[in-house]
Amino acid sequence: xxxxTVIEIGRHAIEITLLVSAPLFVAALATGLIVxxxxxxxxxxxxxxxxxxxxxxxxxxxxxxxxxxxxxMTDYMRRLFEAIPGMIG
Length: 89
Prior knowledge:
The protein is mainly α. It has 3 helices and no strands. It has one domain (3-88). The chain has helices at residues 3-42, 47-82, 84-88.
């Protein structure tokens, strides 16, 4: 196994990680922005007001995008395990 192969595997792993985590990050970002605008407009500074909606939205996002996330991860792992004989030889 050459150093370039290791770098390529690491690059693909980081790409898959970013791809899989993107829906949760976007949902949390959008929810935080909406809650922050609401807090600024109403001058309510309650910590749970920002935490609970993010938790609920991330849970719903995980329910919706979860099957896709698992499919992407298992496909990557399957391709990686199938490539092991070619990397060794």
